[in-house]
# Entry
Amino acid sequence: MSFSTEYLETKVLTATPHQLHLLVIDGAIRHATSAEAALLAGDFARADAQLERSNQCVSELMAGLKSNRQPQLVEQLKAVFVFVQRSLGQAQLRHDPARLADALPVLRLHRETWLALGKKLAQESAADVPAEAGSGYSWSS
# Structure
């Protein structure tokens, strides 16, 4: 096992659910961007493989949605991801990089939104910690 494989494995195994979601979003974007470059270069085999990987990432994002808390929001997110999958599929079927112009901005916006949500949750979490808990030194922490 190489250093980068070990690093990635450790990163995934120690990631929070929020970080895992971000890793999958990043994968979807990275593979779609690579597919776009391959399509523009006429390398359809590489483009197909990269589009398939991006589509798998989007499928993972959809699988992670749980409708038990906010079903309406989850259904809207699913619809967005179905749109992205459809765009990726059309890009693959037609070997048309213009179809990625529909999917990539949506994925990038989702990433930005997810990052902003993470910052907000971290700020709220920090605000919930009593002042005494954060000060001083403890052997147990």
